[in-house]
Design brief:
This protein is of the alpha/beta class. It has two domains: 66 residues, Urease, subunit C, domain 1 (Roll), CATH 2.30.40; 296 residues, Metal-dependent hydrolases (TIM Barrel). It is built from ten helices and 25 strands.
């Protein structure tokens, strides 16, 4: 048994001091006021002990990309993400020709199995987030227009075990029966890259949509007479909204209002892409030029290509601009996304019986150590 002491625990109902976090093997036991005899003690150094972060929308970074269909790259990304506090994630594919997507899903399937082993050394792979190809041409954004196609449940069916979340445009021909069938297969559906009107978006939620991909981006703006998918997502109690809290994709003046509107249905994501964390300037990404400029990643025509955000920074940004406590911002990057993809029974909080996936951070939420399945994968005992 191990015990984490001398830290502020970010529990589901708020921060607590004066408790030790007990765990044995891969499983959390309990926060406790007393440390059992013989327990191995780890000192949090007065920092924060928080649940591991869960990124349900990340394409790549540092030259790696989930769309390359390479399980080795997924492992490399998993190990790097752990340094930023991510303990579980969904490798997110772009809109690609279906055979290319099948290669990606096969790689994710292999990584799902491999990441359950103790020697994986990084964030566990929960499944893929397929951002397309069943999306709107008009709102394609950075997606490949030539790979967009109508929804087809028979294409998805063989991969339902590997695809945990899929972004679909509700107005696409055949989208509503596709959504119902996909949900029946256990795949969660997000509405995004969509030009849907209010009626189409509401029908999609009735059909089973429970998620909204990077709210505001790649969808019509919110209107007071025609609220569209943004309004439907904000008004629905069943829809979890993604937010890229990099202060670029969405004006940070809205962060507090979004949190008040959605509460535990607002999930922080990175939407990080292959060229993220590379030096400023032009870079090649799958044959297209993307210009990195600090937190901005754009194509030469000015179209936003994606993000260079990390999830620990998203937590800090969100807490600062929404004017909320850090523990609430951390919850939006842990328990909320875990619940959104049906993994909250196992991860996402420091509740007894869950996996021992947690972070030790400094008081400003900068990661000192990352623990996954009860093993320290990043940081040192004196970090």
């Amino acid at each position: 048994m191990k015990a984490i002491i001398n830290g502020t625990l970010f529990l589901e109902d708020g921060p607590r001091t004066g408790l030790a976090l007990l765990f044995e093997g891969e499983t959390l036991l309990s926060p406790a006021t007393e440390i059992p005899d013989g327990a191995e003690v780890v000192d949090a150094g007065g920092g924060i002990v928080a649940p591991g972060l869960v990124d349900v929308h990340c394409h790549g970074f540092m030259g790696w990309d989930a769309s390359n269909g390479d399980a080795g790259e997924l492992r490399a990304m998993s190990r790097q993400m752990a340094r930023w506090g991510v303990t579980a994630w969904l490798p997110t594919t772009m809109t690609l020709p279906w055979p290319a997507l099948e290669r990606c899903f096969a790689a994710v399937r292999r990584a799902m199995a491999a990441s359950a082993a103790p020697d994986w050394g990084g964030a566990r792979v929960l499944g893929a987030h397929a951002e397309g190809p069943f999306i709107s041409y008009e709102k394609r954004g950075a997606q490949d227009e030539n790979a967009i196609q109508p929804p087809d449940i028979e294409k998805l069916r063989p991969w339902a075990d590997a695809v945990r979340l899929m972004t679909v445009a509700p107005e696409a021909e055949g989208a509503l029966p596709f959504i119902r069938d996909a949900v029946a297969l256990g795949v969660r559906i997000s509405m995004g890259h969509t030009a849907a009107d209010t009626r189409a978006a509401a029908q999609a939620v009735e059909a089973g949509v429970t998620h909204a991909t990077h709210l505001f981006n790649a969808m019509p703006p919110l209107g007071h007479r025609e609220p569209g998918p943004v309004g439907v997502a904000l008004a629905s109690e069943r829809v979890t909204c993604e937010l890229i809290a990099d202060t670029f994709h969405v004006n940070p003046l809205l962060f507090g209002a979004l949190y008040r509107a959605k509460g535990d249905r607002l999930a922080l994501i990175t939407d990080s892409i292959q060229v993220a964390h590379l030096p400023d300037g032009p870079h090649d990404q799958a044959g297209r030029t993307v210009i990195v400029d600090g937190i901005r990643c754009r194509f030469p025509d000015g179209t936003i290509a994606g993000s260079s955000l990390t999830l620990d920074r998203a937590v800090r940004n969100f807490a600062l601009h929404a004017k909320i406590p850090l523990w609430e911002a951390a919850r939006a990057a842990s328990l909320v996304p875990a619940r959104a993809v049906g993994a909250d029974g196992e991860i996402g909080s420091l509740r007894p019986g869950k996996r021992a996936d947690f972070l030790i951070c400094d008081p400003d939420f900068r990661v000192r150590q990352t623990w996954i399945g009860g093993r320290r994968v990043c940081g040192t005992s004196d970090s």
